[in-house]
Request: fold
Amino acid sequence: MKKRYLFITCEEAQHICDKAQYNEATNWEKFKLTLRYFWCHITRSYVKRNSKLSESVKNSKLNCLKTIEREQIKAQFTKELSKQERK
Amino acid sequence: MPKHLINPDQWIDRYSDYLFNFTISRVSDREISKDLVQDTFFAGLKSMKNFKGEASERTWLISILKRKIIDHYRKINSKKGQAEVRMSYNSNEEEGDWLEERIADPFDKTAEDTLENDELGDAIYSCLEKLPEKQATVFKMKTIEGLETETICNELNITASNLWVIVHRARTAMADCMEKTWFN
Reply:
């Protein structure tokens, strides 16, 4: 087995960590991330901060408008705004 | 000179999600929340001349929205009162099956939960406002709405690798900002 097949770069580790926040990392990717996590302090710090961010968003129970809903509000508002400007 | 300026052209992009989040946590209904947010923007537009620039645009819009939410509950309560009279004469339903039990209670959450969620939500939205527009949009779609990678790529016409680069930049900036304002 080639060494680079198992050992990943810091950037790759961060990419896998990002994907893992959305449950989109494969088990093999998670294994490679774990390997790097043990010996790379930059990866450890990135994983810690990234997980903290995900946890915060989850705890805040945030809601936002869907793109289409925002566009609908924007269209109505733009109409109203141009009426206002004509006055 | 006023500390803050008013710029309605950017209201929807900058504040619609923040106002929507504020509303839905209080009225628990997506459609009503959307209507209240839209009414708030319209009311803000009409009373723009009253904006003195002492508070930020966001704070000013929130104060309008709070009044809209109170009005909404007043309206519900007055309708509820009329309905209760009708029900007491016309229905043979079981004891305790009052209309008021079917209406969402705005004070259902504990005050502490609401306060903590609101403050954390404020901190997250304040950090989101500092991101470039594209990063903020992708972060919201992926992290808050929980949309699939493919859906976002199709909607924004970007590749998956492009999406992950944007997500990475957004998450790094968000973590930096949250570290300064919330984590510590």
